[in-house]
């Protein structure tokens, strides 16, 4: 990507994001993105960290997710509206910005609906890399909506999963998922219940959308030695796992102050012990330590993961050119003469009319 004028900001549209992902290759894209996430988690202590700023309503939530490593600043705007599917709309949509801390100027504006699905899948697989049982090949995927295929591809590329057991309360979602993943190297079974789906699974991924306290997994469904990737619970009052499962599990989280508000552990006491995943990745804390251990990644999504995704996309643009130049910032000849810039534009318009 050539260095643009500072007032021109690279913009990645949905069309360009799809072309970028396909040009790189979906598995390679998610694998390289996972590497960026791991790199940033290893320098976790450098980042500004705050729970996302959320505006909740009866219908859903709108959130801002900001962070900075001192050199770059990134944020994501994202919503979560489970009822949207009934109106033919996406449950989650997003866009993001990456900016230079030194000048405050944005360096990238990009769609993040597709990118969030990819980064969420990459994050799940990174966690499983450290927490799943050795040699895991079979994953139960409960909830087969917009996120499901991305999770499957990431777990195949990074963890080695090649057997999927699908379940959704809407069987058409499972059929859609199986169709989309056909020919990608999976042995796929569509199951009639969550209980059937978890039978023989090394990893259980729950990714449902209902905005409520739900019990997608009951205690009797979870045997020793499995890894649970719980990504559907991501706001206050929205969970997927029975509390007793949490009490039997070693729990790993992104940022505890956020997860205790939004994650599965909102069901537990505020001082219930958890391990921050960055500590495992950086080698400061153990991940999986025994064959019968139940590990739980209580994932709600954190701003540093989006920061990693923004960094990755910006780096990819240099080689692909898959962006538009957006005239986003006012750039007067004299920085203090913004009003004069407006007057000159007025004069130019008048001249054009006369001409």
Automatic annotation (TrEMBL):
For this entry, the protein name equals Ornithine cyclodeaminase
Taxonomically, the superkingdom here is: Bacteria
Q: Name one GO molecular function term.
A: ornithine cyclodeaminase activity
Keywords from the named record? Lyase
- EC identifiers of the protein: 4.3.1.12
- What organism is the protein native to? Kumtagia ephedrae
Record has Lyase as a keyword:
yes
Q: Which family does it belong to?
A: Belongs to the ornithine cyclodeaminase/mu-crystallin family.
Q: Which InterPro entries match?
A: NAD(P)-bd_dom_sf (IPR036291), ODC_Mu_crystall (IPR003462), ODC_N (IPR023401)
What is the uppermost EC class here? lyase
